[in-house]
Amino acid sequence: MRYNFSLFITISVIVIVVNSLGFYNIYKLSSDGITYKENDDKTIEIVYVKPFSSGFFSNLEVGDKIVAINGKVPKSLSDLKGNIIEKAGVDKVYIYTITRDKKILNIPVKLGYYYSRNFFIFELIMVSIIFFLSFLFYLSFEENSKESFFVFLFYSLVTVTHIFSLVSFITYQLYIFLIISGSFLPALIIHFSFILKKDYKKEYLIVTYLISFFIFTIWLVSYLNFALTLTKSNLNRLMTIVKISQFFFGLISMAGIFFMIYSIYSNIKEKKFDLVTITSILFLLGFLPYIFLYAFPVAFGKKEVLPVNLCISFSAVPLLSILVYKTFLKSKL
Q1: 66-102, pLDDT tens digit by residue?
Q2: Residue 46 in contact with residue 66, Cβ under 8 Å?
Q3: Counted domains in the chain
Q4: Which neighbouring-strand residues pair with 52?
Q5: Could you list the residue range(s) of the whole structural domain that residue 137 is in?
Q6: CA–CA separation, 325 vs 315, rounded Å?
Q7: Which of 168, 226, 231 is nearest to 42 (CA)?
Q8: Is 60 exceeded by the pLDDT of residue 114?
Q9: Are the CB atoms for 150 and 195 separated by under 8 Å?
């Protein structure tokens, strides 16, 4: 009997549906390739035009001031990006009303994709492979394996967190999925490390999840406060909360890594060098690039060493390795 099989099916369906919504949002994100700034007099000015972008080919220039887009007058920079540009349809022509040299001009702009097609395809393939491998990984353990269920749950949250970190910042119905998955993902590392040792106290887990819930609540309230007002002050407050949250999630992840290493060491010392222990070592190695080359630098306000999608792609290697071992090599060794 597999551990929590009905919950496994439920989570699988939810993850597939939720991730599909996320990918649809990413695919439909449009962009004009322009960077704006909001002046002290509340006017919105173009400060950069990306070469070969929609705005570039439409002859928009640095210094142009936005009056309206398709007749909609932006109330603020956040309103312009969130309620007008990000919600515009890809490949649709929008009329940018601008002022240039004291003249009012109407310039048609055919909006392109926010993310390149190649980037989107890579993300779709990578996330699908990771989820599919975690799905097979759980099914490969026929016994009542709690470890395999938590591995599947962890990887499922990894895919959700990664996808929804790319969705429109203003689409709060979807962005909340990032807040949920991102808040409790580090706690699962500690939970899994305790399962490996099999002698943990539940009080430790309760404290871990309470801390995650506390951070989740602050992050959610701050985000909704911004999404429903679109004010610059609330955006700055949200960015501060996000940095603080990343820092604490980094600390929780570091604690989880420490406990996992301790659990692996204890199992080896007690001569429990079984498949679960080997799997845990591989998982730890597979996520080292993400933890040390992306998560920790970002948590401390530094630039990542490698892009997050490249770091996460390494995490599929442990899953594939264990599946190959269990399917093809175990019977031969």
Answers
A1: 999 999 998 888 888 877 887 777 788 899 999 999 8
A2: yes
A3: 2
A4: none
A5: 5-27+116-329
A6: 17
A7: 231
A8: yes
A9: yes
